[in-house]
Design a protein that fits this description.
Blueprint lengths: L9 E5 L6 H10 L5 E5 L2 H9 L5 E5 L7 E9 L1 E6 L20 E2 L23 H9 L4 E5 H6 L5 E5 L6 E8 L5 H10 L65
Parallel strand pairs: 1-2, 1-3, 6-7
Antiparallel strand pairs: 3-9, 4-9, 5-7, 5-8
Length: 257
Amino acid sequence: MTGSEDSPAFRLAYVPGVIPAKWVRIWNERRTDVPLTLLQVSTAEVGGLMLAGDADAALVRLPVDRTVLSAIPLYTETSVVVVPKDHVVSAVEEVSAEDLADDIVLHPLDDALDWETLPGRPALERPATTEDAIELVAAGIGVLVVPQSLARLHHRKDLTYRPVTDAPESQVALSWPEDRTTDLVEDFIGIVRGRTVNSSRGRREEPKAEQPKPKKRSGTEGTARKPAAGRSTGRGARSGGSGKTGGTRQGKPRRKS
């Protein structure tokens, strides 16, 4: 494991639709000594950015190349279909893929969903990006199934969306180069996993402060003091072997007969 001193800042990339704000806030509270730099990049670019050393870690959508990148799944997104507001889908709460059979379903080149069979009718061409596909939906050319966060990111007043119950789902994960699991990466892993600031899991345990040793007692401490010479030791002390305690009054002398 390399040390956290390799980089003066922690560089976190993230793909469109993913919101890292909560984790960034916790980082800034805990690691005031290391600034966090955010880099928004496309899904196609994020893996190469990390492998080139231009980002320490990234919030990505799976899958990633697990031969060179480590990944921890964080959460799963709901998939929704984006349609014009006057589309028949807008009248229901959710749909199935079969309900889209008569629609042209756009399939952008940066599609975040792993379809086995795309529903609906295919478009003549695949849009280059999700953003381009949204423009085509607004133009009435087709509909688009995407993770809900992307539908929110590209929100337009003339469009709406509904959940698709049987569409593939997108998983968001924290990823980083397998051979560069630095202390800073370990710190961020702890944050996304909800570990407390005092948890040592995933980090080298800090040495504990040495506790002060108890002072040794001197030979006279804890033992009864000996009375000074010639001084009474209290109750039971006798005077001159008379059996009377010292300081008692003597009787009158006897009269001679």
